């Protein structure tokens, strides 16, 4: 019943149309480009019934006011209510559940990139997907703008890692190649990193998206989700997961990827 369509936006963002094919209802994740959203909704012949906002940054939430104007004030716009998302009218929090047609949605509060960051876990009888905004990227994670390594470790390695391994990961940006180049610099003996990098470079050369990955995959090549691995800890010269995530993020912030 569930079908997910990535919609590129801005320079490297992704919006996502989540469709319940049985009911014809759909939701849009992070609608920054409202005109493009409406074009896709019309082309797909679905009924747009909600918007899911992962966090308040303009490149994710910048279209909410315009969307509300287009769809009407009662149109459900979900997100964390801290006054930083315009036209938000459905405040959500950790473990809050609702529906998109017949799809089940659970919001997961993952503070760090922003204090109000929400990931959305969506499933039907067969498929599972999580929309991770700027918390989890393919082979990477978001910057700690409003939080700590402790919070990011919980978000990645407790909350998201605790989802079923087959859960598909739909992130907010196309950063995969640069993330994997960084992963190779700290986890160079990991063949999963090398294989995924080769795969991602091929897709990007063809102008194709590298989403989704899966939770299972991320545990094999994402250094931020491999911080319990002895080789990673030794490479970084630290003794625990939180210190490892902190050092990885510090190194990634200054890493210059030769894409």
Topology:
Layout: E1 2-9, E2 13-20, E3 25-29, H1 34-44, E4 47-52, H2 58-61, H3 64-71, E5 77-79, E6 90-91, E7 96-100, E8 103-109, E9 118-123, E10 128-133, E11 136-137, E12 140-141, H4 149-160, E13 168-171, H5 176-186, H6 191-205, E14 213-214, H7 215-221, H8 230-236, H9 241-254
Parallel strand pairs: 3-4, 4-5, 5-6, 10-13
Antiparallel strand pairs: 1-2, 2-3, 7-8, 8-9, 9-10, 11-12, 13-14
Question: Could you explain the architecture of this structure?
Answer:
- The protein is of the alpha/beta class.
- 34% of the residues lie in helices and 25% in strands.
- The chain contains 9 helices and 14 strands.
- It has helices at residues 34-44, 58-61, 64-71, 149-160, 176-186, 191-205, 215-221, 230-236, 241-254, and strands at residues 2-9, 13-20, 25-29, 47-52, 77-79, 90-91, 96-100, 103-109, 118-123, 128-133, 136-137, 140-141, 168-171, 213-214.
- It has a 6-stranded mixed β-sheet with strand order 1-2-3-4-5-6, covered by helices on one side. A 6-stranded mixed β-sheet has the order 7-8-9-10-13-14. It has a two-stranded antiparallel sheet with strand order 11-12.
- It is globular and about 55 Å long.
- The mean pLDDT is 97.
- Its EC number is 3.1.2.6.
- InterPro entries: Clx_II_MBL, HAGH_C, Hydroxyacylglutathione_Hdrlase, Metallo-B-lactamas, RibonucZ/Hydroxyglut_hydro.
- Keywords: Hydrolase, Metal-binding, Zinc.
- One of its GO terms (molecular function) is metal ion binding.
